[in-house]
Amino acid sequence: MKKRLSCLLAAVFLLTAIPLRAEGTYIAAEHAKDNGSPYYIMVNRAANTVTVYGLGEEGYYTRPVKAMICSTGRKGHATPMGTYSTSGKYEWLYMVDGTFGQFATRFNGKILFHSICYSRQDPAAMLTKEYNLLGDHASLGCVRLQTADAKWIYDNCPAKTQVTVYESDDPGPLGKPGKRIDEITAEWDNGWDPTDPREENPWNAILVRELLLESALVMQTGDSLRLTPILKPEGASAPLLKWKTDAPLVAEVDATGRIVAKKAGIAVITAICGEAQSGCTVTVTGEALPFDDVLPGAWYYGDIRAAWESGAFQGAGERVFLPELPLSGAMALQLLCNLSGEEVSEPASGKPWYDGVRAWAIAHRITEDAADWEAPVTRQAFILMLYRLETLVREKEVPADTALDGFSDASDVFPDAETALRWAVTTGILQGSDGSLLPNSPLTRAQAAAVLRRFSALS
Question: Residue 233, preceding bond cis, omega within 30 degrees?
Answer without folding.
Answer: yes
